[in-house]
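Step 1: inspect the first sequence and its tokens.
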Amino acid sequence: MHCRFAPAKAGTQLGDTALDSRFRGNERSGWHGRPNTVNAAVVITTTARTPKAAAVVGGGPAGLMAAEVLARAGVAVTVYDRMPSIGRKFLLAGRGGLNLTHSEPLARFLARYGAIDPLLKHAIEHFPPDALRAWAEALGQETFIGSSGRVFPKTMKASPLLRAWLRRLGDLGVRVALRHRWIGWDEGGALRFARDGRDTAVSANVVILALGGASWPRLGSDASWTETLAARGVTIAPLQPSNCGFTVAWSEAMRRVEGAPLKRVALAFGEHTARSMRCLRRCATRSHATAARRSPSISGRT
């Protein structure tokens, strides 16, 4: 590993408690990063060739997967999160069935990302959709392929998968520190966290920032980390919305069919076409729920 953004001192990491006990009651609020999704920013820093302690900032899927990989390599890992429980946005995604990935051939899957970053392309090639399905099923969560080619857990929920994942991480010795809001580094290079009105300093051989985008501030994803990194001289590409929504005055006839699924349809926008199942809704912001909102520039065909 090598230092990419900010220094971190070798030392000890602070943890609160094991993952299992921190997940109790966390039933509310996907991933192969959907091609249109703003995913977590991950930054790795290290000061040692063979790290012994790692701090992962962010308890979403990116942070938990980083923690699992590090723990399997024998590293002592603590996950820090600003919220009272882990994986809130992940659980919210599960309300729609939790679309984990897609079953189409890898080359076509990668093409949907457009001008894909080489690092992301490399990561997906080494952890392709089939590997993601095998990972989920090793956690006892069987998956299936829907009519659109998308892959879902058979439970159609995120909570069973997250519970099983946290049990595995607990067995690997991963610890979690909740209600720890990351606020940068101190003069010596240690991480600074705010908790209960006090600052806490944490040193580690490896630091991974998995801080999410800006889509759900109430669930912890408010992108406040961009200012912290920018102040350290890190160049950050401006965040952009990955989904959009708009409203159209529906006729009474359209109102009567609200909620009806549209199967085996293709949506066209300019030169782009996407085939999948859609649902008729008047108000939504997620891309899969905007199917029947007609405008001069959007059309659907069977």
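Step 2: inspect the second sequence and its tokens, then contrast the two.
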Amino acid sequence: MIYKYILTIVPVALSVIVHAIVISILLRRLVRYKEDEVFRIWPPVRDLTWLTVWLIMAHIVEIGIWAAYYLFGHAMPDVQSAIYFSSVTYTTVGYGDLVLPEGWRLIGGIEALTGILMCGLSTGFFFAIVNRMYQIRHSAFDDDRTIRRKNREK
């Protein structure tokens, strides 16, 4: 019985690794504007859309990792049930229509805790990106105002 709890480190670690990889990739790709893009509306819309899609994809992969863990441990009868249970547990919706066998129930709580942490990490990252977009635009507007003021003073 204890081996199940020790092995739970694997899906927890894999969830964190998947999330870290996706966030690292997004950090390198997002919020890089050319001068003419700073004042346009579509570059930030594009970036926020891609950010949302990639973060959701990361969560889906992590749900799949947990579903595989339940399947290989024979805690769920089939793939559909494992994915459904994992998605409900990971997102902490917890309908209760499917439950883990008695020896696995604490592991469901660990998945829920992992899901909360990964969703929190996504939320914090999303906020940081939006904040960075605001700083870039605000700085560009300030620079633009400064240039206009200097031109008027001449």
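Step 3: confirm your contrast with the notes below.
The two ends are 80 Å apart (CA to CA). The chain has a mean pLDDT of 88.
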